[in-house]
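Section 3.1: Structural characterization of target chains.
Under the original work plan, the team committed to producing a structural model for every single-chain target entering the pipeline before any wet-lab resources were allocated. The record below documents one such target. The sequence was received from the expression subgroup and is listed exactly as submitted; it comprises 203 residues.
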Amino acid sequence: MKKTAMFIAVLSLLALLTACGSAPAPAAPEAGTAPEPFQTVRHAEITVRDYGTIKLELDEGTAPITVANFVKLAREGFYDGLTFHRIMDGFMIQGGDPTGTGSGGSGETIKGEFSSNGVNNPISHKKGVISMARAKAPDSASSQFFITVADAVFLDGDYAAFGRVTEGIEVAEQIARDARPTDNNGTVPPEQQPVIESIVITD
């Protein structure tokens, strides 16, 4: 099967939004206001070697297919020993590719749970949100995910956000600060990729 590189098309998305005059992203909450609580929640912990643990709550009510896929892979140990292969300080850290190149996945793909693909998903890509990476096709997400280390609301409606960090955002921020990508796409050399020791579903 032809491999398709997973990516988050930041520049092309911005150009598309500008050229087509798309509707603006949902308004961000006012400073100091708490995000809306998730209605159906699962919890996960990502332990990264030499960095620490990132704790997350996953919104099973909003993105049931995405959460089920992530939980299944985590429980199978799929993510253990994989890496964060694409890192952009001021944007996000991306991992979950068994090849460490951005072209790999679990061998299965899932439906993209976001509005441009016909699925209502109100989770905004604010700092600390976990979302699925994908190729150009809307239903091409597999195992790769990313965690935002800054607000990235221009992704809203085109990527399947499915949870958020509750503790350990400083771990993700430090990973982003330490990275030394070799290009403007955030590519990190294999020997420098932070290792995901485990992803544990705690309930």
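The chain is about 15% helix and 25% strand.
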